[in-house]
Structure formats: structure tokens, C-alpha cells
Write a structure and sequence with these properties.
Layout: H1 15-31, H2 35-47, H3 53-67, H4 78-83, H5 93-105, H6 131-140, E1 151-157, E2 166-171, E3 188-189, E4 195-196, E5 200-203, E6 208-210, H7 213-224, H8 228-286, H9 291-322, H10 330-350, H11 358-364, H12 370-379, H13 383-392, H14 397-414, H15 427-440, H16 442-458, H17 460-481, H18 516-529, E7 534-539, E8 552-554, H19 575-582, E9 587-590, E10 592-597, E11 621-622, E12 634-637, E13 639-642
Parallel strand pairs: 2-5, 7-11, 8-13
Antiparallel strand pairs: 1-2, 3-4, 5-6, 7-10, 9-13, 10-12
Helix pairs in contact: 1-2, 1-5, 9-16, 10-14, 10-18, 11-13, 12-14, 14-18, 15-16, 17-18
Biased composition (Low complexity): 124-135, 175-185
Coiled coil: 246-324
Region (Disordered): 124-151, 175-200, 552-575
Amino acid sequence: MAKKKHPARPRVWEHQDQIELLAYLDYTLEHKLDFRGTVINHLATVTGKQFNERQVFGKLKREWQNCGRFGGKKGSDQDLLAEGSSFLEGWTESDHEEVLQALRRLQPPARRYRLRSTPLATISTSRTLSRSATRQRSDTSPLSEHATPEFEGLEYIQGAEGERKAVTYKVDVASSPLSSAPSESIKTPDNDGNTVPPVAVKTEGSLPLQVSPSAQYADAATEAMPSPNARAEDMKRLLVHRTAELETARGEITEHQDHIFALENRLSTAEKEREEIRHSARAAVHHRDDLTMQRNLRVENSNLKDQLEQMRRQRQSIALLETDALGPMDKTIRKEFELINADVKDACSSVDAGIPNAADVVAREAAGSAVDLWARRLARCSLGQLLNSALDSGIRDSDIVRSIATVGLCSLVFESRFPDFTARESPLLDQYRKHILIKAGPEMLSQLDFLAYESLMSESYFLSHVVMEKAKTLADQLADALACFIPTKDQAPLSLEYELPGHDTTGRNPAAEDFIAGLVRALELKAKLVLSRKRYKLVFFAAGNKFDPETMVRDTDTRSNSMSRRKRNRMGLPKRQEADIEAPVRLCLFPALYSKEEEEHDRGEEIGVGISDYLVNCANFDVSDADAMDGSYKVVAKAVVSI
């Protein structure tokens, strides 16, 4: 079954209706009239249709949503009511031209004035009222003898169905003899020649007179006409607003000009680089067969790569220095300590160190010698007392010599001012540092000094020559001090046959070569530790101290690790570890390392400090016993002990 077709609904708004609506909106904005109170009557007059307020403002809102531009002050259809049809950017030029023509057809409002000798009909100032009708009304009206009428209000009268609304004005007339005169109506043509529906004007005595529609708008315009002072204030506010917009635009133009200038500089630099590349390409083609040029280019390329690598390392060092991470981490330090301990142990084993006669050794090494000082640092007693107690407790000879050699290594390397060449006097370098301190401040001086040290100690020359030569010198000193424990290469262990250098003997101690590897590793670690903003302390635990697993580890070679599987606790750990906790320490074979953060006054931030307080501190190891430590130190590497 076919669906029943409904007749199409008639259009409420025609195109010409929209043109008249927007033209009247521009008209009220131009002459500052009340749009909301007069638009319905205007549309009823010029279109012959009766619209209500909801239809009018709903139409304006739809036009703003479809064709309005964004960016207004209020961001809604109120911008259209405030700016007029110019806010509709979606309209075509022809539409705007039609609105302009309709606006021109609306005559400007005239001023209200009263003439006591003028008939009532002359209050209509509409130019659309025919001159003949006005003249006829003024000649025949008997109201010229009475007082001037005054409009008190505007009423809307709803007529019968199909009729239009009429605007009724109440006119007060003093002692009018024509209060009962019948009303009349005059039909006036508009600008296009169309007949406009009559508008009845009634007095209180029901005396109707016809007033043209434009007279109503003239009266409303007269009431809403702004004063000259108000217009001047509006112009001033508009001028201030435009001036602010102009300043903002000038600022944006300046920013764009700066950006353009930067782009031009970049373009100029790119063009120069392009020309250099082209020149290099032409030179490469020209010297394609020139072997000398190719060799020079390879050398230059290698130099540039080295410079690039140095720049990369310098940026990385700066980033680490800003976070106080230029020095080695604790994990790296522990690993290096384990390797140094292994190197010392291997060196003592390779030289076959021992104690053939304790009495001869004590008689040879007088009080105050290097070995005696090391023994006091190790066991808090003299060398003779150390040897007697260690031998009585069943400690092996190699472990005793190993522990004394470890004390000597720590004293010669870590607790010295290595690298010692940094302590040399340099008047020119001191002047450089003074100028940096004055110009850039203590923080910049400290950063530059740390970066200079890091760059110097990262050079291959420093590692291959400076560290190696220093290690050889220290190896000779260590081997000479331990000569009473080390036999010569061609005979059994001796005590008095080998003389120290300086006692009518020449040549180098051959045992020194075995200590070089451990000393090189220790010197490299010391060079890294001076770049850390920390204080360090080496602690040798004395014999008799209770074993502490938090700061000590048991030497794996002093006691066998082989154990029956039955002698384990329920956690899977050997039961011997439980007994080690209660066992006393017999001998400390390798020291524990402690560290703490530098305090602010240690970096030279107090009043009255010198330039040296802002520089790298090569003597960053404190020499004291474990009892002298405070709670600020923390364990970095544990001590190796024999129990």
C-alpha cells in the first residue's frame, strides 16, 4: 500500500525576509535603536508576515551557526547581534549587496519635535507618507487649536484571525472637542510602491489617526539617540583598543623579523659549508692521483676523529661532574680491590717470600724502618712482636709477608699525594687559577680543575708512561723494604747476604718486577679516586678483633672449604660460617675501604679559605685506626682476614 503523501510545509522564511531582517539589524545598530522591541512590527510592515520573537532570534542564531565567523568577543550568536550582517562571512557578495540595498531603502530617523499649532497628523515624520495625504489631513483637521500630543506608550493589539497586528499609540489631548470622533485609516505606499497596512492612532477620546510605520521608528530612534559625549567616549575606547591591537601586531612583526634574520644566518652558513664541500670535491678530483695529498687527508681525518672523541668525552665528563659521578662507583672499586689483592698474593708467591729466621729479621730491621712502621700499622705492635705472635698462631710465612706488603702498597700509593706532579709549584698556573676564581667564581674553578685532571689522566701518555714509571719506582722501594723476606734468584732464602741499595751495592732488585702489576692497578685506581668528591679510609683490623661479616670476609686459602654435605644448616649454608662469627681475627691480609661524602667546608666554601681548597684533593685518604671513625663512613670494600 502506497504511503500517503503529505503536502509540503510552506517556508517560514523566504530569502527576501532574511534580507529585510538583517538590513533592519544593521539599521538599528547604525542608529542605536531597540532591535528587540521593534523588529517584529518592522517585518510585519515590510514583508506582510507576522513573526514572533522566537522565530526571529532562532533564525539569527541559525545564520550565525551556518555562516558566522569565529573569534568574536563573546563566541556566540550575540556577536552577530553586536556586529551585524558583516559577521556572516559565509554569505556571498551578492547577499551582502542585497542587504545594503535594503538598508538604503530605510530612511534615517528624524528628531522628535512638537508644534502646538500643528495638527496631530504631522507627528508622523515618515518619508513614505504621501505628501497629498498629509496635506489633506492637516487642512481638514480641527486639532490645530489644541495642545501638543505626547506619546505615552506603545500597545500591540491582536486582531481577528488572518488580520495583522496594529500599533496603537495613546495620545493625551487637553480638552479635545473631538474625543468622540471616528477613527480613520490611511494606506501609505512604501519605497517599492507596495501598499503598507494602515496603522491606527487613537486618542483617549477614541479619535483615530493614521501614522505611517516609519514614524514609529523615528520616535524610537529619537529616544535612543546617544549624546555627543557618549559618542566621544566610545571613540576614545575604540582608539585605545585599536592602539593595543597595533602594539601587539608590532610585537609579532618584530618576532617574525628576528626569526627571519636567524633563518638568513643559517642559510648563509649553509651556503658557505656547501661551497667548502664543493671546493673539497673539486680538490679531491684534481688530486685523485696525488699520494701525498691522500696521506695528508688521512692524517687530518684521524686528527678530526680524535678531536671529536675528545669533545664527546668532555661533554660526558661535564654531565658526570654535575651529578658528582665523575669518580668510580663502589662496585668498580670493590672489583679493583679484589684484583689488587690477587696481584699482591701472586707477587709474594712468585718471589717465594718467607721468614727463615725471625731473630735475624728483627735485628736487621731496626725500629723506625719502613717494615717496622708497616708492622705497627698492621698489628699495633713492633715487627718482632708481630712475627712471634703470627708464627705461634700457626699463620703461614707467605701470609705474613703478604699482609706486610699490602700495608706497604697502601702506604705508597693510596695514602700518598699521587699523582705527585700536581703538587709542584707553578706560578703561572696559580695566576690562571686566581683569574678564573675572580672572573667566574669558585664553582667554575672547581669544575675546570676537575675536568683538567680527568682529561690528563685519560690520556694514553699518562697511562703508558707516567703510571708505569711511577709503578716501577714504587716497586723498587717495596722490594727493597721487603728484601729481608725475599731470597735472591740464585740461592735459598737469606737474611743478611742481600744489601739494600745505598749500602755499597749496585743494580736493581729483581723481585721488584713481580710487584709492578699490582702497583699499576693501584695507581690507576688512585687516579680515579681523586676525581671523586669523597673522603676514603683504609682500615687494618688488629688481631683479636671479633669477626664481623658486615666488614670482613674470610680468606679462602687459610682454611679449607671442603666440607661434608651433612654439615650444613637448613638454609643450605655451611655450619662453619656460623662458627666464624664468634671466631677472633688472627691476621688482616687486606684492608677494608670506607668512604664518606665531603662536607661543604671541605670544598672551600668557608670564609678565609685559599685557592687550594677549590682544587682537586689528591690526599683524599685519611690515615687513622678504625676506632677513630665516626658514623658518617660507610663500607665500600670488606677486609680480607685470617681466622
